Amino acid sequence: MSSREELTVQAKILLALVVGSMTFGVGCHRNTRESAKDDAERAADKTEDAAEKVGDKVEDAAEEAGDKIEDATDK
């Protein structure tokens, strides 16, 4: 194989590696973006659940306080 043919083969191999790397990088970026979106949605769901739990506890505490006040005024 002549040096010119060898350089042509090396150039084709390098080109294939570059194109493959770029394709893989774009795929990874898309997966990362989708994963980040899923993580954000899960975080929003957890925040919403926590807010509902806090709201329920506040409501329960208010009812309990109201019951205690009612009991105290009935005596």
Key traits:
rod-shaped; mainly alpha; 75 residues
Structural class: mainly alpha
Q: Compute the CA-based radius of gyration.
A: 32 Å
Report the strand count: 0
> What is the H/E order?
H
Q: How helix-rich are the residues, as a percent range? A: over 70%
Low-confidence runs of at least 5 consecutive residues: none
The biggest sheet, with number of strands, parallel, antiparallel or mixed sense and barrel status, is: none
By DSSP (H or I, 4+ residues per run), the number of helices equals 1
Tell me the distance between the termini. 107 Å
General shape: rod-shaped
Percent of residues in β-strands = under 5%
Mean pLDDT: 82
Give an overview of the whole structure:
This protein has 75 residues and is mostly helical. The protein is built from 1 helix and no strands. The chain has one helix spanning 3-74.
Short recap of the structure:
The protein has one helix at 3-74. With 75 residues, it is mainly alpha-helical.
